[in-house]
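PROTEIN DESIGN WORKSHEET
SECTION A - STRUCTURE
LENGTH: 276
TOKENS:
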């Protein structure tokens, strides 16, 4: 199964590069860093079904770092919520695929996001709602490490602990870079583990590009009762495309046509090697 997941993540990365090149704008770095996490969520962890997209008992996913929309759109298309051809319309006038997710227009999107921190707050509300309705479904939310500099994040984190939301799992995409530079230079978010623990969360540290680690992290989170869990996922910004990896300049710059060709050569090589 892990080999299949690796193949899915390589395909997802190709969709990210493809749609951003077609759009001529967008955010490749933080989309690529989250590709393995989204792959595991949509193809292994979450109870979601494109044929029953409005199922009240489905799990929910919130992309709180909404600027990484391409990784979500790619995953939704691969899962069957939207047509793969629709990815070519990213950021184009009249397209359902705007620069940030829109829950009113895109099947499978549970929360419109963009203003950093607000998606996380909404996910806490969703988890409280599930508790009140005695539902077993879970809520997953992905945050950027630069995003957690927002005060609204910690207010929501405090509420989630207070209400003992063990049906809520946060994932911090900890790639160490944000739009203005390294986190540690802009405003350090360290020590992450101790911060979340002090707010009453169960903390699980993982390699965000290891499917074994990702699997173990989500499995551990399911066993914890009485408190929410957060996976601090160490990742590489631009992961999978060598010339984008750990390069702050690729936070919000679209690939050129030559960049797409070069990236595809790398990513297609990975899928061939992995047997797809």
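SECTION B - SEQUENCE
RESIDUE ASSIGNMENT:
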């Amino acid at each position: 199964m892990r080999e299949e997941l690796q193949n899915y993540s390589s395909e997802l990365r190709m969709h990210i590069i493809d749609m951003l090149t077609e759009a001529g704008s967008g955010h490749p770095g933080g989309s690529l860093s989250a590709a393995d996490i989204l792959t595991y969520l949509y193809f292994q962890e979450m109870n979601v079904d494109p044929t029953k997209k409005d199922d009240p008992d489905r799990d929910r996913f919130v992309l709180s770092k909404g600027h990484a929309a391409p990784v979500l759109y790619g995953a939704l298309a691969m899962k069957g919520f939207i047509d793969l051809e629709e990815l070519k319309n990213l950021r184009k006038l009249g397209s359902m695929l705007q620069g940030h997710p829109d829950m009113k227009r895109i099947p499978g999107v549970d929360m419109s996001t963009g203003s950093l921190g607000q998606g996380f707050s909404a996910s806490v509300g969703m988890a409280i709602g599930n508790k009140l309705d005695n539902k077993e479904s879970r809520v997953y939310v992905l945050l950027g490490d630069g995003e957690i500099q927002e005060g609204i994040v910690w207010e929501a984190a405090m509420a989630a602990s207070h209400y003992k939301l063990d049906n809520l799992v946060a994932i911090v995409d900890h790639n160490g870079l944000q739009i203005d530079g390294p986190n540690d230079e802009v405003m350090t978010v360290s020590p992450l583990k101790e911060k979340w623990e002090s707010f009453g969360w169960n903390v699980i540290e993982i390699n965000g590009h290891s499917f074994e680690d990702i699997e173990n992290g989500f499995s551990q989170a399911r066993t914890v009762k009485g408190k929410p869990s957060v996976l601090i996922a160490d990742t590489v910004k631009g992961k999978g495309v060598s010339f984008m990896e750990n390069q702050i300049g690729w936070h919000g710059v679209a690939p050129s046509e030559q960049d797409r060709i070069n990236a595809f050569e790398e990513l297609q090589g990975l899928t061939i090697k992995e047997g797809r």
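SECTION C - NOTES
Strands lie at 60-63, 139-144, 168-174, 177-178, 181-182, 202-207, 229-234.
The chain has one domain: 2-273.
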